[in-house]
Design goal:
With 388 residues, the chain is an alpha+beta fold. It folds into three domains: 123 residues, Orthogonal Bundle (Butyryl-Coa Dehydrogenase, subunit A, domain 1), CATH 1.10.540; 100 residues, Butyryl-CoA Dehydrogenase, subunit A, domain 2 (Beta Barrel); 148 residues, Butyryl-CoA Dehydrogenase, subunit A, domain 3 (Up-down Bundle). The chain is built from twelve helices and ten strands. The strands form three sheets. Strands 1-4-5-8 form a four-stranded mixed beta sheet, with helices on one face. Helix 6 packs antiparallel against helix 8 and helix 8 packs antiparallel against helix 9. The longest helix has 37 residues. The radius of gyration is 21 Å and the shape is globular. The two termini are 32 Å apart.
């Protein structure tokens, strides 16, 4: 039986300290001007020549030194073992700065590792705690991690496994030191860690709108996996247990991104004048901004509620996480639309910073299921499969 959700969603002094540290650190080391210079120098490079999105590797080393990569790793495996409520507070700040980094992808891989039950978990969690980057390579061409045709398969060759197949929508793949994938072998599905330098591994870059991350399709052709790279069996059970943490982490990034869009648009509405008045004076501007604020606050409350459920082991944490991802996706879509519109003609241009957050928000809205998908999943738990 789970404990009751804690007061203030379990967000105490330690969690506030981590959030404030992140806000101060990123505010000083990664202001909006730095983001703009990093990802917006040349639109043709991204959209016509398909060049990979840039990121600050020196800043990443500082993040590793701060211990953020080990936040979701248990202390016994060399990590911090931080509460989910604290992690989402940090990730909100990551989203608020649209930080190009493999942190979210690495956290999501960490959640699966800590839920896996096998002899190989500690080795790979130790590596993440020491600064290794990782990404989940578990989804098929439909975006589902559930068993489907075309997923990665495995066969035994002595003590090793040999993997073949593809995984799609792999986040920050070109920044990852290893990939966590699920391979089907007979009636069993096992988790495997696949180093990025493995022979037979190939990454095919996806051309996405988001300027702050990369995405790829992972192709495996006779990739040999030694026993120490086999995390353990029961991959689906581990993924299911980790899924609430994955969803609330993406939702927190969405919420932080939406908050930046709201604040930037409010400031613009105060400064931009029309008919001798700031445009924020007019109800057509004022009311959508208030609605966006309420949507974001609602999403944030659901995110911390879900995080507190995860921290106390509440069995309804998956539904709570789906509610949070649904609300955050909808809030992100609304403020993205309004922020562009309310910035007027400048809002549609490459020179405006709004488009950076707009595109990150769009990516996060779809990642692991948008609001409609999450609500349909909640409905299935309440009334059974839809359409039957």
């Amino acid at each position: 039986m789970s404990d009751a959700p804690p007061k203030d969603f379990g967000f105490g002094e330690d969690e506030a300290m981590l959030r404030d540290l992140a806000r101060s650190f990123l505010g000083e080391r990664f202001p909006i001007e730095t983001l703009r210079d990093l990802v917006c120098k040349d639109s043709d490079a991204v959209y016509e020549r398909g060049e990979r999105q840039a990121w600050d590797e020196a800043l990443w080393k500082e993040i590793v030194e701060l211990g953020w990569t080990g936040l979701a790793i248990p202390e016994a495996a060399g990590g911090v073992g931080f509460k989910q409520a604290g992690i989402v507070g940090l990730v909100e700040e990551i989203g608020r700065h649209a930080l190009p980094s493999p942190l979210v992808a690495t956290l999501n891989a960490s959640y699966v590792l800590r839920e896996a039950e096998g002899p190989g978990t500690e080795l790979w969690m130790n590596r993440i705690a020491a600064g290794a980057t990782a990404s989940l390579a578990i989804t098929d061409s439909r975006g589902s991690w559930e068993p489907a045709d075309g997923e990665i398969t495995a066969r035994r060759d002595g003590d090793d496994l040999v993997l073949d197949g593809s995984a799609f929508f792999v986040q920050d793949a070109f920044k990852s030191d290893f990939f966590l994938t699920a391979a089907q072998i007979g009636d069993e599905r096992v988790l495997c860690a696949v180093p990025a330098e493995s022979k037979g591994l190939d990454l095919s870059q996806d051309h996405i709108h988001d300027l702050t991350r990369d995405q790829a399709t992972l192709h495996l052709q006779e990739v040999r996996i030694p026993p120490e790279n086999v995390i353990g069996p029961a991959a689906e059970a581990a993924l299911l247990r980790a899924w609430p943490s994955i969803l609330v982490t993406v939702a927190a990034d969405l919420c932080g991104c939406a908050e930046w869009q709201l604040q930037a648009t409010v400031e613009y509405a105060k400064d931009r004048k029309q008919f001798d008045r700031p445009i924020g004076f007019f109800q057509a501007v004022k009311h959508p901004l208030v609605n966006a604020m309420m949507d974001i606050d609602r999403a944030r409350s659901l995110i911390y509620r879900a995080a507190s459920f995860i921290d106390v082991g509440d069995p309804s944490s998956l539904d709570a996480a789906r509610m949070a991802k649904s609300a955050a996706s909808d809030a992100g879509a609304f403020i993205s639309d309004r922020s562009v519109q309310l910035h007027g003609g400048i809002g549609f241009t490459w020179e405006s910073d709004v488009h950076i957050f707009f595109k990150r928000s769009m990516h996060n809205q779809s990642l692991y299921g948008d609001g409609v998908h999450q609500r349909s999943k909640i409905a299935e738990t309440m009334i059974g499969p839809l359409g039957k």
